[in-house]
Design goal:
Layout (H helix, E strand, L loop, with lengths): L1 E8 L7 H11 L3 E5 L10 H5 L5 E5 L7 E5 L3 E5 L11 E6 L4 E6 L13 H18 L1 H4 L3 E6 L12 H4 L7 H13 L3 E2 H5 L9 E2 L12 E2 L2 E5 L7 E6 L15 E6 L1
Parallel strand pairs: 1-2, 7-8
Antiparallel strand pairs: 1-14, 2-4, 3-4, 5-6, 6-7, 8-12, 9-12, 10-11, 13-14
The protein binds one DNA strand of 18 nucleotides through loops.
Length: 265
DNA sequence: ATGACACGATTGTCGTGA
């Protein structure tokens, strides 16, 4: 059986319903994890999403900012949401499927503009969040499970995860400190970076193109901020990976595009 | 070189994203 999991920072679920339907129809994910839904639970467009074919729709949101959701066509055994950095700011949701595969959907804090935890609380929060994830995945109780960790991790860890490594090194999201923390997270869980499992590290690979500089997408000034990581027990199941770049060229797009993994279970 | 745009909550403009 093939399980297709996708992750997409949609930058407002209500603004992206048309794109969600088109992506669902064209790529048929079994599980679609969303970030930056930007809507409180009472306003979540549950009915619209269910009519796209998702049996189970889980959401954890707040007004204006953040928010995650998991859309699933399969039966779910367990669902859960964890608190990170002692704040319930809607950055995590997880499900466990009947076969024991756990899917964890994360929206890591972006970290503000100044890459200094002394001067910038948002950056301190981001560093703390990644450290907590590292501690969490270090626990053999997690590490030995069949885990798929997806989401907008807001770090582009490798040289070819940004369009200009030299220029961007001083920017939040690609500082040596953040890149190092991401590598430690990966090592702590003995995780496979699925994108780089399929696309060699010497090739550019991006999932985000900013809005502010208009021609960013045309010029391919991108960053790889969205990730899929799997634990060791799923490594042999990895079958296919894809970043669906097309969506960035659609009308009124999210600044992020979906990433997809197929697992052969 | 951090401005540029998009979004939500608001009614004028601000906080946020990265």
């Amino acid at each position: 059986m093939t399980l297709r999991i996708a992750t997409w920072n949609v930058n407002s679920v209500r603004q992206r319903l048309g794109h969600l339907k088109d992506f669902t129809d064209s790529h048929q994910p079994d599980v679609l994890c969303l970030q930056e839904t930007k809507v409180q639970n009472s306003e979540f467009p549950e009915h619209d999403i269910k009519s796209m074919g998702y049996k189970t729709v889980l959401f954890h949101g707040q007004k204006s900012y953040n928010g995650v959701a998991i859309l699933c066509k399969k039966e779910i055994e367990i669902n859960n949401q964890l608190i990170w950095c002692k704040k319930d700011d809607c950055r995590h949701l997880s499900i466990t499927l009947k076969d024991g595969v756990q899917i964890h959907n994360f929206y890591v804090p972006s970290g503000g503009a100044i890459p200094d935890p002394e001067q910038n609380d948002k950056f301190a929060h981001k560093l703390q969040f990644i450290k907590e994830m590292t501690k969490w995945i270090s626990d053999p109780a997690q590490k030995n499970e069949k885990l798929v960790i997806v989401g907008d991790l807001n770090v582009a860890p490798l040289v070819n995860d940004v369009w200009n490594h030299k220029k961007i090194q001083k920017s939040v999201g690609h500082t040596p400190l953040e890149c190092d923390l991401m590598e430690k997270l990966r090592e702590a869980g003995n995780l496979t970076d699925v994108g780089r499992h399929f696309v060699s590290a010497d090739q550019p690979l991006y999932s985000w193109w900013g809005y502010r500089y208009k021609p960013s997408f045309v010029k391919n000034y991108g960053w790889r901020l969205d990730h899929i990581l799997t634990t060791e027990s799923l490594k042999s199941a990895l079958q296919h990976f894809e970043i669906v770049k097309d969506t960035r060229g659609w009308e009124k797009p999210s600044d992020h595009v979906p990433s997809i993994v197929d697992l052969n279970l």
